[in-house]
From TrEMBL, chain B:
PANTHER family: DNA-BINDING TRANSCRIPTIONAL ACTIVATOR DEVR_DOSR. It comes from Sphingomonas desiccabilis. It comes from the Bacteria. The keyword Transcription regulation applies. Gene3D superfamilies: 3.40.50.2300, Winged helix-like DNA-binding domain superfamily/Winged helix DNA-binding domain. InterPro entries: CheY-like_superfamily, Sig_transdc_resp-reg_C-effctor, Sig_transdc_resp-reg_receiver, Tscrpt_reg_LuxR_C, WH-like_DNA-bd_sf. This is Response regulator transcription factor. Keywords: DNA-binding, Transcription, Transcription regulation. One of its GO terms (biological process) is regulation of DNA-templated transcription.
Length: 536, 198
């Protein structure tokens, strides 16, 4: 074990190395810089003096990149944004106040990166409903713009020249506008960008709902949202202000009922109605109030949708776990049944084997055909008896005392158990002779199970041949299961529990399991167990 | 006491299994090996006939309908302590295997399908043990109660004098009893007397 200071140092070193973009990231950074210029220029069309009062799309692009490629790109994003701002003349090195400008440019991406990192870390370790996707993204999307404003507040108060606004009221208004713009930018732009990135990575997503259901979903959503908007417009028309409550309730309803995609569509529609309306000449207070209301609608709609999706995912996880439980229960029943069958077979087989042996003995001198038939019956009865003994040893007993086990007999038992499956898959089992002095201490049934799981995995992944070797290495024995893997493979049926079980059993026996693939495509699973006594 | 169970001098082995075919097959196997073997399906039938026709060895199944092999062993031991018992089962468990030998005095615990060589070895061993026990019992069975007391003390290692003191007899009387014991059991000395108690 390493001591905490060593771990801390290693963590810092890894973090330092991780903060540098890899070559694969450079294209993303370049793309980000281009998108930043584009969306920044686009937003400048309605950007007010010193702040963006409407919608700030670059924030959405930034969040999408951080979320899809990870917070380790934070520094690279800072550099890209500084470069862009230097090129556009916002930062001019040497001019008075350029450092303040540079810090002002670097702060948002730094805070965004920190928030994304924090949310990812908390989500990875928490087990509440907030940690189920897509809730973490929703939380990061809402938290990051607010955090930027909170961090910027002391600067804005101490260095008013940074935002170009003076006075407490103006500063607060500026920061509120900034937050609103970022929130709208992130919540409206990040989800579709992430969907595009995901679609590019995994191919187009299948439609989540069956088509008739989709029809009803759209119908209900249109009805609810349309009613809310119509009601809001009616109130505006008869001069009762611009109430946001109907829209808020509508998007919350849609988000909770139909999930994130539907919620996002609803908030886009609301934003598309409200934003153009406020581009005209409007008192600052009125516009800010409207935008704050819009932002509330957007935040509520998006979080409601994310929450609904997270709930759906949690339910799906639960259902999957239930299915696994059913499966385990069925396996238990199957095991009980096969044990019973083995016992029931043992009874008549006893008679058969005794009589077959007798028949064989008394027909040795008889007619050749009779003698051969009797010998054959005897042989088959004997091998069936052996099989019943072996199966019973494997499935019949619940627990066994640890005992000294020759590795050769373990491998023999394993081979007998997996041979039918190998044959069925047309895989050849090659078993090298095992030295008889290799003895391990353990529970026979469990160790056989562990090796069977490893060999079965190899058989399922192999193309043609699986090789099993066992060799002493000092005071340990290494059993190696080798198979050639035919390139990329579809995942095998099963739950991946086999190798977990094998690893757990081996570790309980002070053993290890290592799986490696060499350049030639050979997959090698090596299990190592301590030898006992005077072996070697 | 029955010094010789079978007129032809064969050992008597009873096979008990509720599967008639298996019981008969095992019995036939043992007959072929020179034993006087007979198969039973019902433990009660075996128990009721046993008093009149004891055996050297019983090969019995453990799981049977009415009376299991262990209960049978307990009951038959009260009738005959010189009987060897071999258990066989299609439902082997470690606990039963240990019990069959330690608690019920079984000679072996065989899993079905039966290992023929092991079955024959167990029966042969059981028969030899039973014969020896019956022989000892036959030889010491004719002792009078007083001779029996003297015999028990002698084989514990007491000298004639000590035996006389314990039983409040004269050393001469003890000498006489000792001579009678040697004559009845056919033992030629103390060592052979002790061997009879084993």
């Amino acid at each position: 074990m390493s001591s905490p200071p060593v771990l801390l140092l290693r963590g810092m070193r890894d973090a330092g190395r991780g903060a540098l973009p890899q070559s694969a990231d450079l294209l993303w950074i370049a793309g980000y810089a281009a998108a930043f210029i584009l969306t920044h220029r686009f937003a400048a069309a309605w950007g007010g003096q010193g702040f963006y009062s409407l919608l700030y799309p670059p924030a959405g692009v930034r969040m999408a990149l951080l979320w899809s490629r990870g917070p380790r790109l934070t520094l690279a994003i800072v550099v890209a944004e500084m470069a862009v701002q230097t090129a556009t003349g916002w930062i001019v090195p040497g001019e008075p106040g350029w450092i303040t400008n540079a810090i002002g440019v670097a702060r948002p991406p730094l805070v965004y990166g920190a928030v994304v990192w924090l949310v990812c870390r908390i989500a990875a370790h928490a087990s509440s409903s907030l940690s189920i996707a897509p809730m973490p993204l929703g939380l990061a999307s809402v938290t990051a713009p607010v955090a930027v404003a909170v961090v910027a507040l002391p600067w804005a108060l101490l260095k008013p020249e940074l935002t170009g606004v003076v006075g407490l009221r103006q500063t607060y208004a500026s920061l509120a506008g900034y937050t609103v713009g970022d929130l709208l930018g992130v919540l409206l732009l990040t989800p579709p960008l992430l969907w595009v990135i995901q679609a590019a990575r995994e191919g187009p997503r299948r439609v989540f709902w069956p088509e008739t259901r989709l029809f009803f979903v759209i119908g209900e959503a249109v009805l609810v949202l349309g009613g809310a908007i119509a009601f809001g417009l009616l109130l505006v028309r008869i001069d009762l202000g611009v109430p946001s409550i109907p829209a808020l309730l509508a998007v919350a309803w849609i988000g909770l009922r139909f999930g994130r995609t539907a919620g996002w569509c609803a908030i886009v529609i609301v934003a598309a109605i409200v934003l153009p309306w406020t581009t005209g000449n409007m008192p600052l207070a009125e516009r800010l109030t409207l935008h704050m209301s819009l932002t509330s609608v957007v935040v509520v709609g998006y979080l409601a949708g994310s929450f609904a999706d997270a709930q759906a995912r949690a339910r799906a996880d639960l259902a999957r776990r239930d299915r696994m439980l059913f499966q385990a229960e069925r396996l238990k029943t199957l095991r009980a049944m096969s044990v019973a069958v083995i016992h029931e077979i043992g009874q008549p087989l006893s008679t058969l084997a005794l009589e077959a042996k007798h028949l064989h003995e008394i027909t040795v001198g008889a007619d050749r055909e009779i003698a051969e038939t009797a010998a054959l019956i005897n042989r088959k009865a004997a091998s069936l008896s052996m099989l019943v003994h072996r199966l019973r040893r494997f499935g019949g007993r619940a627990l066994d005392e640890p005992s000294a086990l020759p590795v050769s007999s373990l491998i023999e038992t394993v081979a007998a158990l997996v041979r039918p499956e190998a044959k069925g898959r047309r895989v050849l089992l090659e078993i090298a002779p095992v030295a008889s002095n290799l003895i391990v201490l353990g529970q026979e049934i469990e160790l056989v199970q562990a090796i069977v799981n490893i060999v079965r995995n190899a058989i399922q992944a192999a193309d043609g041949c699986v090789q099993i070797d066992a060799e002493g290495q000092g005071d340990r024995v290494e059993v190696t299961v080798t198979n050639r893997c035919p390139g990329h493979q579809a995942p095998q049926p099963g739950m991946g529990v086999g190798s977990l079980v094998a690893r757990a059993i081996l570790e309980a026996h002070e053993g290890t399991l290592i799986r490696e693939t060499d350049a030639a495509g050979m997959v090698r699973a090596t299990l190592s167990l301590p030898l006992v006594g005077a072996a070697g | 006491m029955i010094p010789n169970l079978d007129p032809a001098g064969r050992a008597i082995v009873y096979v008990l299994d509720d599967d008639h075919d298996l019981g008969a097959a095992v019995a036939r196997l043992l007959v072929r090996q020179g034993h006087g073997a007979k198969s039973f399906e019902d433990p009660e039938v075996l128990l009721s006939t046993y008093a009149g026709a004891p055996a050297h060895c019983i090969v019995t199944d453990i799981m049977m309908g009415s009376l299991d092999g262990f209960a049978l062993a307990d009951r038959i031991r009260t009738m005959d302590t010189a009987l060897a018992i071999v258990f066989m089962t299609a439902w082997p468990t470690t606990a039963n295997a240990v019990d069959s030998v330690r608690r019920y005095g079984g000679l072996d615990y065989l899993e079905k399908p039966l290992d023929e060589a092991r079955l024959l070895a167990a029966v042969a061993e059981g028969v030899a043990w039973s014969r020896q026990q019956r022989d000892i019992r036959a030889r010491t069975g004719t002792l009078s109660p007083r001779e029996r007391q003297v015999f028990d003390l002698l084989v514990q290692g007491h000298s004639n004098k000590a035996v006389a003191a314990i039983l409040a007899l004269s050393p001469k009387t003890v000498e006489d009893h000792r001579a009678a014991i040697v004559a009845k059991t056919g033992a030629s000395g103390l060592a052979q007397l002790i061997a009879l108690t084993r």
